[in-house]
Design goal:
It comes from Aequorivita flava. It contains 7 helices and 5 strands, in the order ααααβββαβαβα. By secondary structure, the chain is an alpha+beta fold. Strands 4-3-2-1-5 form a 5-stranded antiparallel β-sheet, with helices on both faces.
């Protein structure tokens, strides 16, 4: 597998897509039931192939990722050639930016000495989707980029 197997819940959400996938493999519903009973290893391989196809499709469309932890906000903008990062680190012990209070504090205190802003640009590697998947495994989530655009706008002023 290139990525990770989808969860049971994800398979349930993608039930129709999985049926269509099996149809492209010329596997009927009855054959699938038989396959699961008599050749579970082959059924497992089909689940893995389907999972990789879904991940590949999702990752190809990703333009923005966010990773938020109590002291750090990492915002990624992914283009065809580059991964741009806006990172914000809070060095004030009593502030947790994952809380409503902490995030409001950050918005009001961006120029405080306890707040460090960094930007970086990195060239995309040959396996862009694998790079993005690693970030997702580390806790990043796919977004529409509102936070990235907000902070990009603030930084450009």
């Amino acid at each position: 597998m290139k990525y990770a197997r989808l969860t049971k819940e994800q398979f349930e959400e993608l039930h129709q897509e999985f049926i269509n996938f099996l149809a492209t493999q010329s596997i009927t519903a009855d054959e699938w039931k038989t396959l699961k009973k008599e050749k579970p290893e082959v059924a497992e391989e089909e689940l893995d192939v389907f999972s990789d196809l879904i991940w590949e499709g999702v990752l190809t469309k990703v333009k923005y990722l966010e990773h938020i932890s109590p002291k750090q906000l990492m915002l990624f903008h992914i283009t065809d050639a580059f991964m741009e990062l806006i990172a914000i680190k809070v060095e004030q012990d009593d502030i947790d930016i994952t809380t409503t209070y902490g995030y409001k504090w950050l918005q009001q205190n961006l120029h405080d000495d306890a707040v460090n802003l960094y930007t970086s640009t990195k060239a995309i590697t040959d396996d862009r989707n694998k790079d993005l998947f690693i970030l997702i495994q580390q806790g990043a989530v796919i977004t529409k980029g509102e936070l990235y655009k907000y902070f990009e706008d603030l930084l450009s002023k």
